[in-house]
Amino acid sequence: xxxxxxxxxxxxxxxxxAAMFISCSSSNPASSNGGGGNMSPGPDSxxxxxxxxxxxxxAITAGTKVTWTNKSNTAHTVTSDNGTFTSSGNIAPNAxxxxxxxxxxxxxxxxxxxxSMAATVTVTP
Length: 125
Prior knowledge:
The chain has 1 helix and 8 strands, in the order αββββββββ. By secondary structure, it is an alpha/beta fold. The protein folds into 2 domains: about 1-30; about 45-125, Cupredoxins -  blue copper proteins (Immunoglobulin-like, Sandwich).
């Protein structure tokens, strides 16, 4: 195979790889870095994105399991302010944490890594 043919083959391979990367990146607008896309969580869910819990106030009924999803590119925690529910420990990017709230109350929590991140779960009977 001539050097020219090898160069053409390498160029086409690189172009194909770049096209595949662009296609994969644009097909998932809600990527782990929190950029773009629909970042609205489900009714019993909280997203961690842009150094905030979304929503910051979640209202649920007793017995509901809440799922926190870390959609950022750094670890976070879900830590009860007063120890009234089990805390998560570090949640890696793209990972989740779940907790079922068995009884009514107001549960304030924060991220121990980023203390300015705070939110509330309000549980009704």
